[in-house]
Fold these 3 entries.
Entry 1:
Amino acid sequence: MVTQSTTENSINIKKPKISFEFFPPKTPEGRIKFDVERDLLKAVSPSYFSVTYGAGGTTRDNTLETVLATQKATGIATAPHLSCIGGERQDLIKLINTYKDNGVQRIVALRGDLPSGSGVFSGEFTYAKDLVKLIREVAGDYFSIEVGAYPEMHPQAQSYNQDFLHFKAKVDAGATSAITQYFYNASAYEHFMNLCNKHDIHIPIIPGIMPITNYSRLARFSQMCGAEIPRWLEKQLIAYGDDSQSIQQLGEEVVSRMVEELITLGAPGFHFYTLNKSAPSLAICKNTELI
């Protein structure tokens, strides 16, 4: 566990910020559960919440409703995810202005994925950099804009260098910070930060943290997004089979240890992919003295 041995260190070392991601609840029962979990996370004073946006904008209305309700109920800045694939310019402009008119000051700007079964990109926008440019065109410097970063490479990229140049284009377009895809190897983050320094990219790069609570779900997510599960970790998770308690204990230990290493590497914050459950993220935060 990371500790600070002197008063001087505790003054000079800046504690990383934390933020939490939700997906919009789809049912009345889900809404009740969401409010409970959200309020448990509110109690640790995160810097902001974020709310996801379905493939092709399929949860756009639910995202809008959840963002506005969360910000009003908690008083904590809440950032909508906004993706541009499949979106039309005027629809995106209208949505950007709606968020601005309602006092939302952050947007997580993403390219997004096509809805399941759709084989080609559609709409006026192809890349996240185009969405960043549009937000700046519509609202100037009003919004803080988070974009995605892929220390282990985007699964659809042709090469690591090409993928990094796509990231740089988003920064050049006006992104103010980035949230990484989750990973379980701190060296990937360290290498990515070295590349950022080499290319004079100095915006905050926030590691995205995925708690481990269920192997089959993690394997499915990782296959879709290109995140690598280290072989030793995968084999141990498989060996536990249906022993969910052991899986959760191992996951908490592994991720907490990685977060501590990332703190020593200078990570300015951590963005937790909560899957609408507070306990796994809070346990990691407590283990690493983030709260």
Note: The CA atoms of residues 35 and 94 lie 28 Å apart.
Entry 2:
Amino acid sequence: MKRTRALAFGVAFGFALSRVGATSYDSIRNMFALTDLRLAGVICVAIAVSAAGFAIARRTAAQSLEGEPLALTKKPMKRGLVTGSLLFGVGWALSGTCPGTALAQVGEGRLSALATLGGILLSSLAIEAWQARPLRATAAT
């Protein structure tokens, strides 16, 4: 039942992304060019709604899909985070979409979204392979 609700929420969220123009390359380009900040406003509203939702979930001792209590913990700064963030931003600017909106574009029937999803999957596999590689011993060890 929880997975069905999560799927329904995802479909509704994708529909909302489509309706506000978040799946439009022109809207994203205009946001990055600072010529039309409506989409930036939508993102700010989404952040505020998410923050309120997390606050309510934490107060009501909600559980994750796996049945674990929700816990919001501060994440430590990791090596490669800045580089990964820059790569994410470059990919977003080039493709005109991020992972969430790419799925919404697939729902709209846009074939270009399949290329974006392919890039997301390939880069995910590449980072997984990179992180699983054996560590080399250094001269200091």
Note: The longest helix spans residues 38-59.
Entry 3:
Amino acid sequence: MAAGERGLVSRPGEEKRLRENIDVAIEFAEPLGGRGFNAFYGNCLEGADRRAQDELAIENLSSAATAAQRIGGVVLIETQNTADSRCYPLT
């Protein structure tokens, strides 16, 4: 966060990293009773197609929601306040 990163959900090239960690989060949360999973959407990337980032986010959120559903969980999409948006599309 201090370096300006605001999530992986819409970040091209980070699909594998994100998806590998979905199951880890579910496995960690289940015995603890955790059912809410924060998903940081990610910054707009300079030079990246914004529509492609949004489509990637939909795919990743769908994967996360399907995994969370296995334990009765829900994925929460994290917004950012406009004072610290750094091109974060959800404010």
Note: The chain has one domain: 1-71.
